[in-house]
Structure formats: C-alpha cells, structure tokens
Design brief:
Blueprint (H helix, E strand, L loop, with lengths): L1 H14 L2 H8 L11 H25 L2 H6 L15 E5 L26 H13 L4 E6 L9 H13 L4 E7 L8 H15 L7 E2 L2 E7 L6 H11 L6 E5 L11 E3 L11 H19 L4 E6 L3 E2 L10 E2 L5 H12 L4 E4 L20 H15 L28 E4 L3 E5 L8 E6 L3 E6 L7 E6 L2 E6 L3 E4 L46 E2 L16 E2 L2
Parallel strand pairs: 1-2, 1-11, 2-3, 3-5, 5-6, 6-7, 7-8, 8-11
Antiparallel strand pairs: 4-5, 9-10, 12-15, 12-18, 13-14, 15-16, 16-17, 19-20
Helix pairs in contact: 5-6, 7-8, 9-10, 10-11
Length: 530
C-alpha cells in the first residue's frame, strides 16, 4: 500500500511541477535585456520561495506517519514466511444454544451466529488478540438447513470491511456431503466462489483451506479429488489427524486437538508431528506446512455424558504451556482451537466464567510468536468494566428460587432426560413446591400455572426453605424410557465416508461420536441435521 501511494505521489508531482505551472502563467517575469534587473531578481526570489514551500508541503504529505495513517480496509497480503496466528470459528449457534444443560459456560453476550453485528464484534476481538484470520467451519454450499454457507459469505464481507482474513475449515463429515462427488463439487465451489473474495486468506497468492477428518477417505481417493479440483496445486490444503501419509496429497498438516495427551506430553507431541512433516518434505519433494495447535482447555462432559473428558484450564497455565510447546516445534503457523467452540469448551471468546482473560492471553502469546520468542508482548487491552453490584434478593413469604443464569430449562421431572416445559430468563422468581432426597439437586417449582423442576445449582433460594414439603416417590414423575432408534440401512462403498446417524430437526445442534483412530481421540463436532 505504501509503494502504491508513493508511486502516485511522484507522478502527480512531476505532472504539476511548479516551474512549468508558474512559468506559463507569469509573463511579467521576462528574461529579456530590456527588463529591469531588480524586477527579474524579485521574481526569481518569489518563485524560489514558492517552490521551497511546495517541496516542504510535499515532504509532510509523504512522511511515514502520514502514510501509516492513511485509511485502508484491504487486508494485508500474506507470504509463506509470515508467522500467522489463526483460529477456528463456528457459525451454527442461535438463541436456543445457550443453556447450561449442554454447555459448561456461556458467552458474555449470548448471540445468534447469523447476526452481522456479532460477526463484526468477533472480528474486532480477534484482531485485538493478534489473530490474523478465522478458519470458518463450512458444511458445503448446499442444504436447506445449512446456515454455514450464508454465514460464511457474510463473514467474508464483514472481514473485508475490517481488514481481516477468512479461510475455510472444510468439514469432510458434513451431513450435506455424503460421497466423493459431493465433496468434489463443494471444493470446486469453495475455490471458485469463496476463495475469490478479497478477504479470503491467501498465502503467496494461494487460497488456504483446512480440513477436518480427511481420513474418512483414502489417500488415493484424495489424489483423485485433487486432480479434479486443483491439479496444479494453486491452493494450499492443510490436512488433519494422526496419519501424515496424507501429505502425499495435502500441502500441510495440523492436529485439530491435542488435549487427549497429558499436559506433560504437549512438547513431545508437537515435536513428533513437526518431525513427520519435515520428513514428508524430503519424501515427497515439495514444501509442507507444519501448523501447531494451541488450546485453552477442553470440556465436553455435558454433550457426551459418560464418555466426555475435561482438560482443566488451570487458570490460564494450560494455555501457556500449549503455546510454549507449539512455538518450540518451530511451526509455520499456529492455530487456536478455538475462538468459539462452546460445546467442547475450547473457546477463548469472552465468557461468563472467564471474561476476556483468554483473549488477553492470546494477544500476549501471539505477540511473542510473531516477535520470534522472548517475553510475551502484552497486547493493549480495554479495561473491563467493574462488576455490577449484586441486587439483594427480597425476603419472600414462601420458599422461592431465583434463576441466576442467562436461560434455564424448566423440565417435567428431576433430570435432563425429562422434556423441557419452558425456558426461564435470569431473575425469574419461582415458588418452590417440593423436593425429594433421591434428587437433591432439583427443586419442584411452579411457573405459569404448571409444575416443573429446575436444577438447583442454577438458582438462588430464599425464604423459609424448611417449609418445602418432602414429596412422596409416587408424586415424582418417572423418567421417560428412551426408545431405540433403528439404524438406517447403509451400503458401505469404498468412496463413501462413514454413515451419519443423526436425525434432529434443522438448526438444532446434535452431537455424534466419530469412530476414528483411538489414539486421535478426535473431538466430536456439532453437526446440523437434515
């Protein structure tokens, strides 16, 4: 940008040179012997002063500070030598997402992903944290309930307005991409439509695509796909998983998650895969990118009861160790998992529990990575507003529960297996009508003329709790018996990915276990159902 401005400035200066302009418009400055010497000398002094003044003004106009202050919303071009910091970003959330039944924490500002103001706010937060681009999860261009397509297009426009970059995280296991033909078509449209956008992430002029679960297909199948989609390797494809043999097709590699290792193993895991990528450069005779993953922690126990796990954030210490291990592997880029993957608890977006702590930490560590090491550079932070003074609860005449979370489910019985009767806003007062010692973490309450149950840790109680009646067992609704869903008949074709088994309504989040390599412990991604 500076070079363009300098070039145009010098062209303008030459085409409006003062000597030409003033020489043509001042015939009285004659140089004939008949003109008085004093008059000629006076005009020469005058013209010299005018010329010096113009040169001084031109120097101020072309000063570095002035050039830097020139407004520009065009994202800076990236080269393969730039130490980029990227972050996974998800656009499938809506107003019904934010409930503690499914999430361990909630955003500081609950939102719907389709809201363009939210997109703009997230982009600005990412820029403040030193993030160069979002890698936006994408389910392909088709599907009536596929909001990732319009939301990706909107994200690109919002990024262009703010000098930010957007890349694609290609969801190979998308419910809208059921076979090789659909994957091939989606990739062709991604490159022809979205990658041509001015805000799309390019490195050395090549659009960048990250892939989730490419191991659903064989290396040979991916060879055939790439031969159709990008035979000249004019784009950069970054694969994922524990099998680096896919670097025969892909241009780089990353691990979506590394929290399946003990924290002490973060260093060795990064070194191991960095070494495998380096070996692939020699083996395949082409450059391969190593992208190291950093994570603040992990918590999916509420979406996968019985099989989920928690990697504690340790007050930010785990995030710090993750960055240190990643940088020690000498990566080309670093990817943060994630900006807003709420169901798996990997978000750094401001939250009810942590505020802006992880955005601030990301800013410090991204500064250190881009500076090439040393002490983490503290990013400028806007002071957080003081917490509001809690309003004292009234002393009710009857036992009462007050909702303390953003949104709380009122259920038909004491457990998450019971159907949801209603959703209660923060501050709602609920008369308590009973409890039972078998379910000590649930209160029976009244709301809107109906009786339901609320989860005790999500409410604050007041009033004479000793008056709450102990309910007989027969008064407690029996838990519903789950009905088995028959498995759909599927024909296992070599070119098809593993069958999807979700059947939820559109725009609802569903979760499924991925039958992948056990050592990978691949985090299960939320999927939009048909």
């Amino acid at each position: 940008m500076e070079a363009d401005m300098l070039g145009s400035a010098f062209v303008d200066t030459q085409s409006n040179h003062p000597s030409n302009t003033f020489g043509a418009s001042l015939p009285l400055a004659s140089s004939t012997p008949d003109a008085p010497i004093q008059l000629r000398l006076g005009w020469r002094i005058f013209l010299t002063l005018v010329l010096l003044s113009l040169l001084a003004l031109l120097g101020l106009w072309l000063s570095p500070d002035t050039l830097k202050a020139a407004p520009s919303s065009r994202p800076a071009a990236q080269s393969s030598g730039d130490p980029l910091v990227l972050a996974f970003y998800y656009t499938w959330f809506d107003e019904q997402t934010w409930t503690y039944d499914r999430l361990s924490d909630l955003p500081a500002q609950p939102y719907a992903s389709r809201d363009r103001e939210v997109m703009g706010r997230h982009i600005q937060q990412a820029q403040g944290a030193g993030i160069d681009a979002f890698l936006v999860a994408w389910y392909g261009p088709h599907g009536d309930s596929n909001q990732t397509e319009p939301n990706l297009a909107a994200m690109l426009d919002e990024a262009a307005a703010r000098g930010f970059r957007i890349g694609i995280l290609f969801e190979t296991d998308s419910p809208f991409l059921g076979n090789v033909g659909a994957v091939t078509d989606a990739l062709q449209q991604a490159l022809s439509r979205h990658a041509s956008h001015p805000a799309y992430l390019r490195v050395d002029g090549r659009p960048v695509l990250f892939f989730w679960r490419p191991t659903l297909y064989s290396v040979d199948t991916w060879q055939a796909i790439r031969q159709q989609v990008d035979p000249g390797h004019t784009s950069i494809w970054i694969g994922e998983g524990v099998d680096t043999s896919y670097l025969a097709v892909f241009d780089g590699h990353h691990l979506y998650s590394n929290t399946w290792n003990p924290p002490a193993d973060l260093y060795s895991v990064n070194q191991k895969f960095a070494g495998q990528v380096a070996a692939a450069r020699e083996r395949f005779g082409s450059y391969k990118f190593w992208v190291a993953t950093v994570m603040p922690g992990y918590n999916d126990v509420r979406i996968r009861p019985g099989v989920g796990f928690v990697q504690d954030r340790e007050g930010g210490n785990y995030f710090a160790r993750s960055w240190q291990a990643a940088m020690a592997s000498n990566p080309n880029w670093i990817v943060i998992n994630s900006f807003n993957e709420w169901p798996e608890g990997t978000y750094i977006e401001p939250s009810a529990a942590f505020g802006e702590q992880y955005l601030a930490l990301a800013g410090q560590w991204s500064g250190q990575f881009k500076a090439g090491g040393g002490v983490a550079v503290a990013a400028a932070q806007v002071p957080a507003p003081p917490p509001p003074t809690p309003t004292p609860l009234p002393t009710p005449a009857v036992p009462t529960a007050y909702v303390t979370v953003f949104l709380l489910n009122l259920r038909a019985g004491p457990g998450t297996d019971y159907p949801i009767l209603d959703q209660l806003a923060q501050g709602t007062a609920l008369p308590i009508t009973g409890h039972h010692p078998t379910w000590p973490e649930w209160w029976q309450v009244e709301y809107g003329g109906q009786t339901g149950w609320v989860y005790a840790p999500m409410v604050q109680t007041a009033g004479p709790l000793e008056q709450v009646p102990l309910l007989p067992v027969e008064a407690v609704p029996q838990a519903p018996t789950p009905t088995a869903t028959p498995e759909p008949a599927t024909e296992a074709l070599p070119s098809q990915p593993l069958a999807q088994t979700t059947s939820q309504t559109s725009f609802q989040l569903a979760f499924q276990m991925s039958p992948v390599h056990a050592a990978d412990m691949a985090p299960v991604k939320p999927v939009l159902s048909h």
